[in-house]
Amino acid sequence: MIELEGVPELIDPVMICAFEGWNDAGDAASTAVGHLDREWKGEVFASLDAEDYYDFQVNRPTVALEGGVRKITWPTTRLSVVRADTGEKSRDLVLVRGIEPSMRWRSFCNEILGYAHELGVEMVVILGALLGDTPHTRPVPVSGVTSDPDLARSLDLEETRYEGPTGIVGVLQEACAHAGVPAVSLWAAVPHYVSQPPNPKATLALLNRLEDLIAVRIPLGELTEDSRAWQLGVDQLAAEDSEVAEYVQSLEEARDTAELPEASGEAIAREFERYLRRRDGQPGPAGGHATESGGLAEGREGGTGGPGAPYLREPSTGHGRPRKPSPKDEMAREDDAEDTGGDGDEAKDADDTMDADSAKEADDTKGADDDRGSEGRDSEGRDSEGRDASRRDEDRTDRGDNGDEGPGADR
């Protein structure tokens, strides 16, 4: 019988699990649970007996000095509880963080499920990370899988079809299915050519997907900046080796080609929904919100970048997409159009006035020429030479001194 002391009644509890070892490439999954524990100041209420599940020659204890006293820390799995209170929705998270056990996996899973039952856990989410052929320059792929067909349909997840060796993540998920506890596994793909921990970009991607799944906004702290710094460091290392740079480029091309349809639909929709949640819960411009690529999305109303700045990232390129115009923007554009239309009417009236003046001036000039022609004919009478001279004078007057037509010169 599991006895829980000091644990209050929980609100819509969800259990989040991660285990160091085979299912934790780059320590991405265990770091994600550790981040939740730090940000929400988790309180440990239970730990599993290390003697039952660990081979201490594989996972050795550590010794440290605390106040001059030597203290041994044994490898184990600890359970803590945090309240995710973001102002929009409060729910409790039971965090399970430890090391993949060396033995008695079925007993290990049964003990964890015992705690889940006593705490009234509604769903178990297990985080994992694996090595894959994915470029570090693109958003980290995160897949959500479950063995429950109904849960897969309701949460838009994939039904697991994996066959082969498995770790504690797969065993615990199967144990949940047999116990009737809804369970989901989230897997982040870590580039195999940079598999050493830490990998803050993969951790960030797992937290973003977890946020979508449990509908709770997760504070990211310094994780966004750490993700940027990590990618910049890998960029520099890749640039120093031409073969690595070419290999990364080939992975980028393969990834962009394979995910082009998703980039134009489902991924952008998820990013937009996440933006709306963060905008509602974080009205000021501070921080923006994190993308799967480790960047900050800006440009929301009231934030940095102005109403026309990009805030959606194009998954295939990493570039920003323009913000969809809001009703306020539409009204502003209509006002600008009215102002521009008024200026255009004034300019048109001015042009019409100038054309009328030019036409009047041309008519006056022509009238004057006709008068001079008449005077020439009266003074010379019927003399043919006078008439010829008069005609030549009229031609010169109509054409101007340079041989151009008068209306053309006026224009």
Task: Provide the fold topology.
Blueprint (H helix, E strand, L loop, with lengths): L13 E7 L7 H12 L3 E5 L2 H4 L8 E5 L2 E5 L4 E8 L4 E10 L5 H15 L3 E10 L9 E5 L2 H7 L2 E2 L8 H12 L3 E9 L8 H15 L8 H17 L2 H17 L1 H4 L2 H16 L7 E2 L5 E2 L14 E2 L6 E2 L5 H54 L3 H16 L6 H5 L1
Parallel strand pairs: 1-6, 1-7, 7-10, 8-9
Antiparallel strand pairs: 2-5, 3-4, 5-6, 8-10, 11-12, 13-14
Helix pairs in contact: 1-6, 3-5, 6-7, 11-12
In short:
With 411 residues, the chain is an alpha/beta fold. It contains 13 helices and 14 strands.
Q: What report would you give on this structure?
A:
The protein is an alpha/beta fold and 411 residues long. The protein contains 13 helices and 14 strands. Helix 1 (28-39) packs across helix 6 (200-214), helix 6 (200-214) packs across helix 7 (223-239) and helix 11 (327-380) packs antiparallel against helix 12. The radius of gyration is 38 Å and the shape is globular. The N and C termini lie far apart (102 Å).
Helices, by number, come to 13
Widest β-sheet, arrangement of strands? 2-5-6-1-7-10-8-9
Strand count: 14
Global outline: globular
Average pLDDT, rounded to a whole number, is 75
Measured distance between first and last alpha carbons: 102 Å
The multimeric state of the shown protein is single chain
Low-confidence stretches: 283-330, 342-350, 368-411
Largest sheet: 8 strands, mixed
Helix content: 40-55%
* Run of helices and strands: EHEHEEEEHEEHEHEHHHHHEEEEHHH
Features:
alpha/beta; single chain; disordered C terminus; about 400 residues
